[in-house]
Amino acid sequence: MVNEEKKIMSIVKEDGSIDEVEVVIAFEFKDTKREYVVYTKNEKDENGNVTVYVSYVDRTNGTPQLLGVENEEEWNRVKDVLRKLSQ
Fold first, then answer.
1. By the 8 A CB rule, do 39 and 20 touch?
2. What is the extent of the structural domain holding 29?
């Protein structure tokens, strides 16, 4: 049995409250230098699957901000990474 330490990240929401989430994976596309993080709050959907969230990491203002994936081409690239990880 492998003992993997969970990576926990704090997210400050717009209302000032803080969510503690578990990082599944973080990665960067080398050609665009855009960073992404996949994380979970360990919530389960109606089928018992754990819900995961994907955000773009914007570091332009010094403090990292998590933003949504904005366009379809970008989203398709992220989905390709997730598919490869799930194989």
1. no
2. 7-86
**Could you report the per-residue pLDDT of 11-58, keeping only the tens digit for each?**
988 899 999 999 999 999 999 999 999 999 999 999 998 899 999 999
Residue 70 within a domain: yes
DSSP 32: T
Determine, yes or no, domain membership for 2: no
Distance CA 57, CA 67 (A): 6
* Tally of domains in the chain: 1
pTM to 2 decimal places:
0.83
Residue 82 three-state SS = helix
Question: In angstroms, rounded to a whole number, what is the distance separating the alpha carbons of residues 68 and 74?
Answer: 11
Q: How far apart are CA 53 and CA 21, in angstroms?
A: 10
